[in-house]
């Protein structure tokens, strides 16, 4: 028979995030941003848009009015096209497009604000 308060097994068994090196921690932290970006489209070529949200798996961009994005497209973070992502358009309503990120284009660096500098 146990006396007193039972131990909190869930807390005792769950790993603490700070016990792991940064590379092993979750990296899908969303970043709200307001930066230019570029989409490669077949009909219009390179199209300048505005990136307003990004995480490792999703992005939200604003596109010029009346532009319908193809189902899959390339999103570039720099005008020189050196860094970007291959995306799948999940939803497009008006000038807002929600994208699922399928893969990286260019450097395999972690996404951070420094990627948007030319």
Structure description:
This protein is mainly β. It has a domain at 30-107: Thrombin, subunit H (Beta Barrel). Helix content is 4%, strand content 45%. It is built from 1 helix and 6 strands. The protein has a 6-stranded antiparallel barrel. A hairpin with a 3-residue loop joins strand 1 and strand 2. The longest helix has 5 residues, at 9-13. It starts with 8 loop residues before the first helix and ends in a 12-residue tail after the last strand.
Which helices and strands occur, and which strands form pairs?
Elements: H1 9-13, E1 31-41, E2 45-54, E3 58-62, E4 72-76, E5 83-93, E6 96-106
Antiparallel strand pairs: 1-2, 1-4, 2-3, 3-6, 4-5, 5-6
Class by SSE composition: mainly beta
User: Which residues form runs of ≥5 with pLDDT under 50?
Assistant: 6-27
Strand proportion, as a percent range, falls in: 35-45%
Question: Largest beta sheet, briefly?
Answer: 6 strands, antiparallel, barrel
Average pLDDT reading: 75
Series of H and E elements: HEEEEEE
How would you sum up the global shape?
Answer: globular
CATH T-level topology of the domain at 30-107: Thrombin, subunit H
Distance between the termini: 67 Å
Strand order in space, largest sheet: 1-2-3-6-5-4
Q: What is the subunit organization of this protein?
A: single chain
Helix content range: under 10%
Which CATH-level-2 architecture of the domain at 30-107? Answer: Beta Barrel
Number of helices: 1
Q: How many β-strand stretches? A: 6
- Just give the CATH class of the domain at 30-107: Mainly Beta
Radius of gyration: 20 Å
């Amino acid at each position: 028979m146990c006396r007193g308060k039972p131990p909190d097994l869930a807390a005792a068994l769950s790993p603490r995030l700070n016990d792991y090196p940064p590379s092993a921690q979750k990296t899908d932290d969303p970043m709200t941003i307001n930066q230019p970006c570029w989409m490669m489209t077949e009909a219009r070529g390179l199209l300048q848009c505005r990136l307003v949200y990004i995480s490792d798996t999703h992005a939200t961009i604003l596109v010029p009015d009346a532009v319908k994005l193809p189902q899959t497209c390339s999103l570039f973070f720099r005008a020189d096209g050196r860094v970007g992502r291959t995306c799948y358009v999940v939803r497009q309503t008006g000038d807002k497009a929600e994208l699922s990120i399928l893969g990286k284009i260019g450097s395999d660096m972690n996404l951070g604000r420094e990627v948007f500098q030319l």
